[in-house]
Design goal:
The structure is a homotrimer of 212-residue chains.
Chain A: H1 2-27, H2 32-54, H3 60-63, H4 65-80, H5 82-86, H6 89-113, H7 118-139, H8 153-169, H9 176-193, H10 207-211
Helix pairs in contact in A: 1-2, 1-4, 1-6, 2-4, 2-7, 6-7, 6-9, 7-8, 8-9
Chain lengths: 212, 212, 212
């Protein structure tokens, strides 16, 4: 049952990442092909960067055509029904946050399988979860969103740290991944709901920049 | 004879990609070194990304110094004679379109050699042909041109699909690459001549954006 | 003694690259997490790109946690004491230039160890020294600084060429790396001091662009 649950989260995460790519690309008025590419980059960018850096080649999406199919269908549906889908922001946020947790755990577990240091594993998890969005933003000529305002990568880092803490205690070994996903999921939801952000380094007077 | 033909297309494609990099870089008024780097990125970016993702390392340009020499000479010539060369836009377009076809086939054939799914092979072909220009545009702080207006990647995808259709029928096996290159070449030329673009998702009223 | 000297230059270079990342990120008013990521990218970006392209995987920073620790501490210190540190621009420039030389030699020597052509080795050295900054600038939505004004990569190329010239003569084999680092270091310092830049291709009348 756990396996099916994780499989579903994997798919939902891929779908919601692709949809977030479609919306970001449409905001910049890209053409159909451009939107598709951005949907792909958002969905597979983080895992691709991780696989490249640890040398697990060919990268995941090349070995498994299923991701491409899921992303393609999601992107086409999101393009056609973009106005309808935008009414389901909350649902998308839930999927997206589940996906964030799932991809982070995936990155952590790959790091462990490669015998890497816990700190590096957490970094790889964060890269897997977050860097699809980072590459999307760079390709669209935006400064990456997660570098600026949101509690996003921070959720991955906290979730990853809890993963290794629990791993040390030895408690509940089997459901470690589910606990980690849930933690990241909840932090992300709470952060969006209450508009939590990392403390600013720049004082209250941010108006200068904003006026520009 | 076919081998010599393909070799020549390879060189002409590399040259014309490098020149397009030089012109894009000069538009942003980069210095000599910056222009050289952009010429390199445009020429070898797509193949490098492909080799990285399938794990064929070191990447091509590192194993064969000839590409670097061709790019270097092309870039220097293009810098010195940039006004003269700009009078040969049509010639450049022909070279560029031949190169696009050639690099796409190269990517497809590498994918086949690695035993990958046809859909993935076409994706790799498209990456090889188009992503040098994508990385060039991102490095120059532009939204990639091929995400916006032109029939460019679409030509690669159509050409690649024809490649696999013909491969299935078994007809003309030996000249499959030449047919695929010709298809991409012709689509690209026709698209530029008649200013064909992918259908817009945003209605006729694009004036809002354009006024900005 | 030479080993300890090089080790120290490695650390100082890593620290000063991280600090330059922090300052660039703070200029764009990123949040704490964004600043940390940019510090990492600046420090490890060049070496990561080099390792990816030659296929020396996992990339360096993944195999050795020490770099991450050094970067993390440097970045936190630079965030907290950023006003104080900015008074030490000259010290930072010295560290940065030493680091540039060291990383360039590192890239060259890796290229030699992989049996690559001298021209490719110099390119890899330049990538190692300069592309952390290039990726930093792209991620921050700037056109890379080194493509525009400064004698930076040029110093790496000259230093690398001298490395191979001396290697051919066979003189002073043992201190080749130190000679190369010193050359790059001095070129860089002189270039900054006397505001040397590559010759412009665009004539004196650059006012058009500047007015925009």
């Amino acid at each position: 049952m756990k396996y099916e649950l994780l499989k579903m989260i994997d798919i939902l995460g891929t779908v919601s990442f692709a949809i977030s790519g479609v919306f970001a690309a449409m905001q910049k008025r890209l053409d159909v092909f451009g939107i598709l590419i951005i949907a792909f980059i958002t969905s597979i960018g983080g895992g691709t960067l991780r696989d490249l850096m640890i040398g697990d080649l060919p990268v995941s999406w090349i070995r498994n055509i299923n991701y491409s199919i899921i992303i393609f269908i999601s992107a086409v549906v999101a393009m056609v029904f973009n106005k309808t889908i935008k009414n389901f922001q909350n649902t998308l946020l839930v999927f997206d946050s589940l996906g964030l947790g799932f991809f982070t755990v995936l990155g952590i577990q790959k790091g462990i399988a490669f015998g890497l240091h816990p700190g590096i594993c957490i970094a790889l998890g964060t890269v897997t979860g977050c860097f699809g969005g980072v590459i999307r933003d760079i390709a669209l000529n935006n400064i990456p969103l997660i570098f600026q305002k949101e509690i996003y990568a921070t959720a991955c880092i906290i979730g990853g740290s809890i993963y290794f803490l629990l791993l040390k205690t030895g408690i509940n070994f089997d459901w470690l991944d589910v606990i980690c996903i849930t933690t990241i999921f909840l932090i992300r939801l709470v952060a969006v709901r209450y508009k939590l952000a990392l403390p600013s380094l720049y004082g209250n007077n941010t108006s200068e920049e904003e006026k520009l």
